Amino acid sequence: MRVGVIGVNGIGQAHLWALRQVPDSSVTAVCDVDAERAQKAARDHDVAAFTDAKALFGSGDVDAVVVATPPGTHGDLVREALDAGLHVYCEKPIAPTADEGYALARHAAERDRVLAVGFQFRHHKGYAAAVAAVAEVAPVTRVQLNATNWFRAQAYYEASAWRRTWSVAGGGVLMSQAIHQLDLLVWLAGMPKTVCARVRRARHEAEVEDDATALLEWDGGATGVLVASLNDPTGHERVEVVGERGVVTLTDGFEVRVTHHDPAQQLCEECPDEFPLLELAPQPVGVERSPTEWIDMLVAAHRDFAGAAATGRPPRVDAVEGSKAVELANAMYLSSYLDEEVSLPLPRGEYPRLFEDLATGAVPFPARDRF
Fold first, then answer.
1. Within-domain flag for 265
2. Least enclosed by CB within 10 Å: which of 29, 113, 265, 359?
3. What's the pLDDT band for 154 if we cut at 50, 70, 90?
4. Residues 4-19: pLDDT tens digits?
5. Residues 164 and 226 in one domain
6. Mean pLDDT confidence for 68-93
7. Is the pLDDT of residue 51 over 80?
8. Does residue 170 share a domain with residue 117?
9. ω before 139 within 30° of 0 (cis)?
10. pLDDT digits (tens, 9 = 90+) for 209-251
11. What's the domain count of the chain?
12. DSSP characters for 221-289?
């Protein structure tokens, strides 16, 4: 499969190098609005260079494209590529609104093309081990997710001004960084039915949020707490999933532990002690590590994409699955703006109206709320 990479700065560079390790794919073109950057990438990989995506789509040089541009540009590029008969691997998030993500899924189906979303952490061995362990202790009764491992200085926004804007970035920590952990939450427990959130700007000079907290509830009664932030110099990732038959913890990606016990309801009803002291020791789950594990995820994602394009099967993360984390983020924004609990799935059109106001500056949200 001949692949063109659109956007060769940042994550686009990682895609270029990952694709060199995929036997069923080869990079044949690059595209970037920065002509000098496009030419350099073309020289580095000995491929054709473009500065206009439409010219690339119609060149006949590619069978598929990777869209690695800022989120606000994804929708138009994905649609145009699909209309040109190309398969598309779109970086996360697929779009700033889930409505657009689901619409792109329908568009890909109508064009009979593969549209994959770049949630490469679906190929993360630590995440996969945690998901497998959760199946052993299910059904889930509580989830606590701490995603504060994304500390960013103000220089992050100064280096690329688009990152601070609603119109191009689509959001802050929930959309640009912790979207991976929102996707993990959906993978672990499914979509919640209600969200009550507070989203704010606490430290950074930007339009978008740098801190968010949410209370979640699922059908069946499970509850959860989600915290995401760019503001903690000592922040870390930790997920705790409490199930009827045990507890699973995932710390900083690869430390997975599981504690098994008899059904909690049974223990509650039958334990004779007034103050039970249950000797339940967490057991580590072995997770294979590799010096190249971060690029390995991207390679695995591209192998999956190539296989889907070759066989017609769905990719590991198609546009419907890849829009769920976006819908959860949208729900958190909407809940915080309305200052009320919101239900999922969101009514179509509800969040896009708010996003349009955010993107145009008609609504100054979130308000500054310093620590």
1. yes
2. 265
3. very high
4. 999 999 999 999 999 9
5. yes
6. 98
7. yes
8. no
9. yes
10. 999 999 999 999 999 999 999 999 999 999 999 999 999 999 9
11. 2
12. S-EEEEEEES--TT--EEEEEEETTEEEEEETTTEEEEEE-S-HHHHHHH---SS-------EEE----
Write the CATH number for 32. Answer: 3.40.50.720
Q: What is the CATH number of the domain that holds 216?
A: 3.30.360.10
* pLDDT above 90 (res 255): yes
Assess whether 207 and 172 both reside in one domain.
Answer: yes
Helix or strand holding residue 5 (H, E): strand 2-6
Say if 258 falls within a structural domain: yes
**Same domain? 111 vs 238:** no
Give the Cα separation of 18 and 306 in Å (integer).
Answer: 13
Give me the residue label for tokens 């590799």.
Answer: 290
Over its C-alpha atoms, the chain yields an Rg (Å, rounded) of: 21
Burial status of residue 223 (CB atoms within 10 A of its CB: 0-12, 13-18, 19 or more): middle
Amino acid identity, position 193:
K
Q: Which helix (H) or strand (E) holds 146?
A: strand 140-147
Q: Is 243 exposed, middle or buried (0-12, 13-18, 19+ CB in 10 A)?
A: buried
Check whether residue 157 and residue 268 sit in a common domain: yes
313 and 335 part of one domain: no
Percent of the chain residues topping a pLDDT of 70: 100
Residue holding tokens 């009550």?
A: 196
Amino acid identity of residue 252, one-letter, is: D
Q: Is residue 152 part of a domain?
A: yes
Q: And the tokens for 267? A: 């223990």
